[in-house]
Amino acid sequence: MTTPHLNAPDIDPDEVAYFENLAHRWWDEQGPFWPLHRLNDFRADYIRTQLCAALGRDAAAQHPLQGLSILDIGCGGGILSESMARLGARVTGAEITPKNVRVAQIHAQWSGLDIDYRLTTADALAEAGETFDAVLNMEVVEHVENLSGFLSSCGRLVRPGGVMILATINRTPLAWLMAIVGAERVLRWLPKGTHQYRKLVRPAEVTAALGPAFTERHRTGVRVNPFNRAFSYSRSMAVNYMLVLQREAGA
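^ Ubiquinone biosynthesis O-methyltransferase, sequence as received from the core. Prediction below:
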């Protein structure tokens, strides 16, 4: 197990404490993380489709990601990691809160899945020289303190020719209204304080931090129906969005 750099500049100790207090609720589909459970099927399908297109796989195969090495950064309790493992991938889940790692490990054992969960950071993995076919950076960047440093480390973790898929919330007035005021304070879909407006990230900030070694392959907005709580694609990226970025083969 890699020792985490808990004093790294991209780690916000207040964010760590916040999510550690919620760790035991990760797999309660009616608890505070129900949006992640609803979102997971939607985003897992997107990830499968995009990875297969970028890496020459058959998305219709029973295990289309068979043999691919995938890093799930900020894996939390392992919701997405388990979905990727069921598609055949060799999954490493990186997390900075010990309780979340233990929750993820226990649930993977119950599920009969072999997932390498580690208490570590992107910076520590990059310094160790590790690389992966795909890095999944889902709903993480809006919680880090040093965006450029974090994304630089994540970029180093993608092998040449590999892919990063990132999902987050845009920093726009509409996102503040929908994701913070609406989801946290009015509808109470998320615990109050889950997101801070200053940490929300614009797409251009992502691509700038990753630099010219990465080419954008796909982008889409994501919207949620407040009545049936279903997620769908949207042309607008003003609130939630996903990006697919591929590292140049020679980079």
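The chain has one domain: 13-247.
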